[in-house]
Amino acid sequence: MIEEIFLRLPTPAALxxxxxxxxxxxxxxTERSFLRRYRKRHPPPLLGFADQYPGFHPAQAPYPSAPLSxxxxxxxxxxxxxVPKPSEGYRGVCDVRDxxxxxxxxxxxxxxxxxxxxxxxxxxxxxxxxxxxxSEKKRPCQSTPLLVPVSEDEDExxxxxxxxxxYGTELAVFVFxxxxxxxxxxxxxxxxxxxxxxxxxxxxxxPFGCRGLSCFARGCxxxxxxxxxxxxxxxxxxxxxxxxxxxxxxxxxRWLPRQVENDFTRNNMQCRSxxxxxxxxxxxxxxxxxxxxxxxxxxxxxxxxxxxxxxxxQNNAESSKEWQLENIVPLxxxxxxxITGADEGFLFLGATTxxxxxxxxxxxxxxxxxxxxxxxxxxxxxxxxxxxxxxxKRCFFTRENVYWYFGFPPSLSKPSI
Length: 417
Description:
The chain is of the alpha+beta class. It has three domains: about 1-40, no CATH class; about 45-245 and about 400-415, no CATH class; about 275-400, no CATH class.
């Protein structure tokens, strides 16, 4: 009966206060089975985001989780100084999930990867991929590790890391399991079997890039495929496949009048300078397991308007008739928007005010050394509610990788990764 009452407490903060009342309450609340049920009933709050470089940016008031975010920032070690340094260079953040941070050495030759919990200051250094698994492969032109979400029936102290390796003509997937402590080959395929390698594929447009270009749903990873009107699908431990987006929304959006004009001016270097923005759609796991896809339609002229085109594919749907345009979300004026990611039923946007972009080439302003204010927003997929999460300064021309952090207050966290 006590457990059923605690499950109905509205916030993690209320649950944390109840756990301090007496030892019996705390034993009930800290049981893994109870926490698993509570997380299913109450989605984890958004606490902020981590950068590719050491640092954490907490949600700021009046965002609802601001007090919890501040507590996390004060208690956790987001400098990752407790993780041993690699032999060369440094480790940068490449993913965040379930309160864990995935670190990778910025050097393709080593694949030096670590999983850590900044709150408990515990870590695991992953072994290199054995040579017998890659003996027939050349050095990948790009490799991207990601954390696999913990399913509802799994022990949350366990984890998996999935590594996507692009060899130019082939794709290979390796999986590390904390149970075995070893890597294994999960799947491999050729670009030709997926319809051919997209032309001009580079680091900015790679399908296995930052969170938001991918989505984990129903035991599969879905990826937005560059230069193609389709989604790549990886069924863990089986194979790659594709899901066609026959509605052609991506093609239609590229040919909207403002988009054609903007593409022309960009190619002729006549548009205002601003950070690069991924042109791929962003994928979110939405209501009832539906795959939600968002595309940003932008007008970068002074006082231009921005819209989010939202369309969805229902469970197990592969027919073109199942893709539906849900709605078109107009974004507040006065900002220049770009998408930073998607996760946990949210789409995330960065935005700068128009006045910061009015910099003429003859002004003498050193853009490479200019820092500007960026506001970050969360868009709830279910309600289309847009809320400001925080503000930070960032360099004008740096490519930004943002990893959004969801979790529970420190009093409820387990002392393990």
